[in-house]
Specification:
Shape of chain A: globular
CATH class of chain B: Alpha Beta
Radius of gyration of chain B: 17 Å
CATH superfamily of chain B: Class I glutamine amidotransferase (GATase) domain
Number of strands of chain B: 14
Largest interface: A-B, 35 and 41 residues
Strand order of the largest sheet of chain A: 2-3-1-4-5-6-9-10-11
Helix content of chain A: 25-40%
Number of strands of chain A: 17
Radius of gyration of chain A: 23 Å
CATH architecture of the largest domain in chain A: 3-Layer(aba) Sandwich
Structural class of chain B: alpha/beta
Distance between the termini of chain A: 69 Å
CATH topology of chain B: Rossmann fold
Number of domains of chain B: 1
Strand content of chain A: 15-25%
Strand order of the largest sheet of chain B: 2-1-3-4-14-13
Bound molecules: zinc ion
Distance between the termini of chain B: 42 Å
CATH architecture of chain B: 3-Layer(aba) Sandwich
Strand content of chain B: 25-35%
Order of helices and strands of chain B: EHEEHHEEEEEEEEEEEHHH
Helix content of chain B: 25-40%
CATH class of the largest domain in chain A: Alpha Beta
CATH topology of the largest domain in chain A: UDP-N-acetylmuramoyl-L-alanine:D-glutamate ligase
Number of helices of chain B: 6
Oligomer: heterodimer
Structural class of chain A: alpha/beta
Amino acid sequence: MRKPFSFYIAHWIGKLALFGMRLLRRTGSYLPGAIALRIDPKYLSHTGKPDLIVMVTGTNGKTSVCNMLRYFLESAGQHVMDNREGSNTIEGLASAFLTHNTWSGKSPHESGVLELDERSAIRIFPHVQPDVLLVTNLYRDSYQRNAHAEYIFDILDRSIPPTTKLVLNAEDPISGRLALQNERVYYGIPLLDGECEQRHPRFSDLVYCPVCHRDLEIDFIRYNHIGRYHCKHCGYSSPEAKYHVVSFDRERKEAQCATDEEKTIFHTQTDGVTDLYNLLSAAATASECGVPFSKSAEYSKTLPPLKSRHHEEIIHGRRFLSILCKGYNPVAPARVFEYLQAQPGRKVLVMANGTEEEIVENMAYLYDNDYSYLNDPSFFQIFCCGERYLDYALRLRMADIPEDRIVLSRDYAEIPHLIAYENADLICLIHDVSDVPWVRNLLSAIRKDMEQLQ
Amino acid sequence: MKIEFLYPEVASLFGELGDIDFLVRSFPEAEIIKTKRIERPRFLDETIDLVFIGPMTERVQEQIIADLLPEKDIVREKLENGQTLLAISNAVEIFGQYVETDEGERIEALGILPFFARRQMLDRLSDVFIGKRGDLDIIGLKAQFTQVYKTDDLPYLCDVEKGFGLNMQSRVEGICWKNFLGTYLLGPFLVSNPLFAKAWLEEQFPEETIELPFFDLAVSAYWKHLDDIRLMRP
Ligand SMILES: [Zn+2]
């Protein structure tokens, strides 16, 4: 395609803006992309693209999966571009192309792994059509912006290009039914040995048959609406997974996974099923992009740890965990609670979500998340902190958690002084941002206190 | 005392599970009925003291309206005779005249109360909220696709102090008619407004023993929340 003159103006000014921001040491990738799109609204159509474009969208897991997928493709020798530096909206994507493309607007990369904001799909797909699209899952999320799962489903369903191949979660009956006319493969994790079913989730975004809207038979429910179902009225049933887990050795952090042709062992970073979903979906997508499943399994041994999300260390025999977890989400915190409840020993939990600027709107998430996992005597101190400390405390009381296990500390700096380190086997900090001074200070203060203990 | 939660499995999208927990705890003696989407509402055929319905997806809203339309005379009679009913967010619209869609199509609602809603699916409206009802501040969050237009004489819940009202031009929030209370406040509404919840429930059920859960803690959280919303930039 011949590029119009306005494209070159947009590309060069955008690139200059990018350099300018770097000189000023300003982060964030919104502005250069926004400038380019202002000058050439079809900038994304006009700019050069890699031969293969893979996009990853869905409510949870996008960033982790993109990291894994990129690692698999790069390990297989591909030269990959991405948008990890910035946002996953149309402006962020434009900035990514500004960053990676040459001054003449050509893409020097073989493939692109792009994280895509679910709601931005409608603005992006007319200009960039992914060859492969992985949808991790769809839940209710970001109520102010994204409303509900059906709303996001409709946006994606209407805008997915007909040529895009889909990689979908066999246990998500919502995202699993996107763009039904498109070519697709599924990945899935059957109910694992020793895994506890959650037949009565606090909420579910899919209760009735997605086809005939009548009652649905449950084969199993992993959490919320994630599970397998069939309908005795219309014959609907959860799809078969091409890529699936056969068994999961949580202690050794090894998962045996299979396709029709092969069986292979993947190494996981944690013993959680969420991470296993991320890994399996990344490997399935890599396989659809030409990287053999068994190769990804091999690469999983050397996958760099996602340090910022899940950090664990043993300090003088006590476990210290810090977990980065979206606070504005009705599912993610509950998954962490479930994981923590299953851990052995006496626990201290610090819920360090929410700073002053982002205070008021997340109350609804408090009541959608399942706090009953924390109603367990092994959590002998649960800290409610920050500006919403009283709302957190009320939520815990509504989950029948006794008052004497709840510690109120509006001031983050006070928390380390209140932790009963001597009685704890595990101290866990959950935070929804990592790159802010108060989280760093809190982490280092707790670590220092633990190091001083004998 | 009987409380019926209408379709809680699909009509509790934005934290209303908190309101449900709150009501269940407030009336420890009450019979709790959770009516599923595929079941007939119990309040149509028997005396139910309090009916609660929360927000739902637009598709579910249309299905519920279609299911209830043949029963609209019963629903009207119940409300005219003083049925206590609390509707949150787009559940309110079921009881109005119609919902106008993006395409200009009208979905006829039960036609009981004199208001209609206009839905714009690409324009999600959202803001924090403070309103005044007498001396009492009512707080919450609004996030919706619809704007509501009511007749001037239809009573409302509160005057807008911060945020937007029933529509972007309106300075009032909520609809109150006899014992029907409809509001677009999420929050969850009752948990976030323990002082209002206490006043409203005591007015509705003067004979009942009401035990508002963790009332002192809820009130402290409310005052802190109110202060914080006041500090937020408009
Ligand atoms: Zn069916």
